User: Fold these one by one.
Assistant:
Number 1:
Amino acid sequence: MLLKDPNQVPESRTIKYVDVIIPVPIPKRYRYAIPKELEPYVHIGFRVVVQFGERRLLTAIVAEVLENPPEHYQAKYILDVLDFEPTVNATQLQLWKWIADYYMCTVGEVMNIAIPSGLKLTSTSKVQLNPEFNYFEHEMELNPHEDKLLNHLRGVNAVPYDQVSEILGIKSVYQVIKSLIKRRAIILFEEVKEKYKPKKIKKIRLRDAYLESEQAMEELFASLSKKTKQEEILLKYLSELPVLSRPELNREGLEKTEITHGGFSTSSLNTLLKNQIFEEFEVVQSRLDEMEESVTVEAYDFTLNDIQAGALDDILEIFKERDVCLLHGITGSGKTEVYIELVKKVLANGSQVLLMVPEIVLTAQMVVRLRKVFGESVGIYHSKFSDNERVEVWKGVAEGKFPFVVGVRSSLFLPFDNLGLVIVDEEHESSYKQYDPAPRYHARDMAVVLAKLHHAKVLLGSATPSVESYYLAKTQKYGLVELKQRYGNAQLPAIHFADIRKERKRKTMKSEFSSLLLDGIKESLNLNEQVILFQNRRGYAPFLTCEECAWTPKCNQCSVSLTYHMYRNELRCHYCGYREPAPKHCIACGSSKVKTVGVGTEKIEEELKVLLPETRIQRMDLDTTKRKYSYQKIISDFENQQIDILIGTQMVSKGLDFDHVSLVGVFDVDRMIHFPDFRSHERTFQLITQVSGRAGRREKLGKVIIQTANPNQLILQHVFNHDYWSFFKREVWERKQYLYPPFTRIVKLSVKSESRELTDHAAEQLAVYLRGRIGQKRVLGPEFPVIDKIRNQYLKDLIVKLERGKVDLVKAKTLIAEQIERLRQQKGFRKVYIVVDVDPA
Ligand code: ADP
Ligand code: ZN
Ligand code: ZN
């Protein structure tokens, strides 16, 4: 595939050039020359291979075909073309450009996250003989290269695309391959389609006999005392799974590869298996399809009730005049059903539909419902899909196999060519915002842009709309449709407050549980109903501290204390992932009085197990849902009432629809309310309303118990009254007072470096520059953020506030970019990195 020398002088005088997009964060245009023989095959949106720098080969996208050479350098040749059809269409390129401009990054950075890496790695493409083709029956004129390739393939069947040039000894193989494909002699395919095959995992566990008594275990160790390698494996096993204190973990076992890839001796492991110390077993890790089948949904046909049908009519009416409509429908009002009817109409017109959801793992139930209605025409774009799976969906969309896509934020980037409607479900969700890497885009906002490029409509749906969207609706920029009743006879749950300050005084608290909540839980369980408990912090406790000297273990790389995780008796940093075993004694003074402070999901779980020993309790948070489909197992177990109480972080708040949940308990709400961020009230209102919405979704009235030290806080009163409107009015008033969105746009600049002094100095300097150009009052800070060191990088933040209607946004961003560049040009600041976040969430 490679030209031998990409620098060689062009042979033809009428040479053409391309500007390409390269997935790098350098804001430059890259122009390459097209070798003559490739000229007919180079088009906008095609992938080409280029040499970048001295050694790197990159897949680039053709953005423009031109007549002129670059001005200041000698163009290199592109080395090959990888496509027969464009990978990226013109509208996608427009969207990339839009995003790069708006979020102040390069188009290359957008490309980097927009395209599945499977389309960037040329080595996944393989060339194979077409099994349906018999050459001997066809008379085919073959040139020597074609002949050579076919002969080679007869021997090996398939070769990677990028080895073909070596095999043929020529620079560009595109023509050879194209002509053979055209005659159906060979096919090109992307490797590995393991998609829906269930995956089997080989595991090992200790034979039960060794766990029966301490003596058995001691004898086992004694028998291995001279067999160091086997002993090492046993120790590794015991350190990964503390089965001595928690024998039930032994059932789960350990993946065999964790041992074999961990540098432990494979033959020693085999000996342990042969000697029946360990036993081997297999588990089937289910894939999406199987999980879908296990989630029970009967045939799903429904007719909209009058209220829902009215809402649908209103939406259609609004779409005649406006491009965006906000559907504010309380939890359980049947927004999904309205979406479905709307989608049917748009698909019937022959247009494509994109339904965005904050996180598919949490919307499994909705995906199941959609599959029941739309069958195989639904493409699913999932954040936990492998790259091959992503490539498949990408191609399916391009080929028209999936006119309807349900996906997470990155589904914006799929190759739609005829989009008629974008629905953004739970539009208020902060997971629509990408934090890292650039582009730090907000998928809801970009959905509006994408729709505009396609002349399509946008429906934003939420029970708790973002202040921004509701404001736009109230000021007539968006249409607004409200669903104020739950479907059927279901009522919104009754909210109760458990005043933990009073209960603490009266000594009626049982550790973290108020008597109100504990009694409520018992009452629900007695009626065979289920309970959801919400604690928005994972782990056991946010930190440890020594009672004697106040020492607290902190992360070496970040300025945070380490979170205690009881399950593995470990301390972990939630920012960089660092772990270490929990100390038994204080490292500073040696005291053994090390205690935990604060509460996480694990602690709630542990305490509840003591308080209600007979109850089936399950925790759902990041730590229990690492495996690809473990969350779905938890959800279906809960649906099937094999779990009585589900404890979780915000994961339990979203989009779940259960029949038998009558009580929702909320812990630690005060911490959420007082979190230092202008959105903390909005977030609190949204989170509690959403998690409350899981209760009482059928005939019976549900109940929510919120534990707080002060039930009189205004925001809690709005929650109590299910009063979005009052919440909104108050919030808008405050945002206007203090100049926050929607009245301003915020650009956050985080200055980052390996030295605190350097960061500090650079941030101060940048502030001076910005104040000079943008205006004194528009620049806030710099300030050290609460966590001012992450992964050994020191941080200091600046906030730029740009008033809507007063400031020209494009100009302001140009000025900001110039000041950043000015700073970076200074010698002392070369090692400073500046992260730009437009509209931080
Ligand atoms: P939302 O997304 O607004 O919270 P859902 O769409 O999940 O609400 O609807 C709540 C429940 O009511 C679901 O179980 C759903 O199947 C049921 N439901 C809503 N509308 C209808 C309808 N028209 N016919 C039958 N069931 C409905
Ligand atoms: Zn101490
Ligand atoms: Zn850390």
Note: The first strand starts at residue 17 and ends at 21.
Number 2:
Amino acid sequence: RTVYVNGSYLPETEAHVSIFDRGFLFADGVYEVTLVLGGKLVDFAAHLHRLHRSLNELRIAPPVSDDDLLDIHRALIRQNQIDEGLIYLQVTRGAADRDFLFPDAATPRTLVLFTQKKAILNNPVAERGQRVITIEDLRWRRCDIKTVQLLYPSLAKMEAKSRGADDAWLVRDGFVTEGTSNNAYIVTRNGTIVTRDLSTDILHGVTRHSVLQCAHDLQLKVEERPFAVGEIGEAAEAFTTSSSGLVNPVVEIDGATIGDGNPGPIAKRLRHIYIQRSRDTAI
Ligand code: PLP
């Protein structure tokens, strides 16, 4: 596999980053994961927009131009022959002697990209529906910044796995914030889609934005507000959204069945429409 690191395309075994890199020492970096379908990038402009927002919040200067980022993504798709999968991009504040204070702004940032060939459309978990558990959301309070600080969600997903579930939904003050690496939704018995409103409590998902647009086009009712854990058991269906999972039905919460225990019609419809829309608009 060819990867990109700081201006070079290299075999993955030859790519290196300094042990003094602040991404390694302080999790001082941000990332994006873009979906590739049919060899093309889905919602790339939205990923770039969010990358700039994350960088800006952390006062990290962009390492290269947006045109260069697009070129690098396309070069890796070509070189690694990615038809379906993901491209991971990470920017860190770069390498400097270890200090809590930021180094000089002129310190070169680290830019790394790699590809993952992956079956995205054919997903057995999406076919049967995810089993989810709830776990207290103990992440830091700037979940809107896509930092590489992923240890808590990683622990939460391990806990889900050890309890025989697929993922965890994180809960703050009795209300769901989001999944470990996805946004969370319920559909009420009267057909209203409910997902937490945008704030510093959640990542502003690129897929969330597109799927809510699809819901709007289908004239489905949407409420952007926090929903309580108690509302999930009462819901007709539930699902998550993310670049790697698309629209992914949820059929069980903390061992209790949601709806009839099968992926719900609204989640299935949104998944279908979202895939169509992604194919049509990918670049
Ligand atoms: N929420 C969290 C915490 C995430 O890590 C992710 C994706 O990695 C998402 C939501 C979904 O975001 P997107 O739809 O942009 O992939």
Note: The first strand starts at residue 2 and ends at 5.
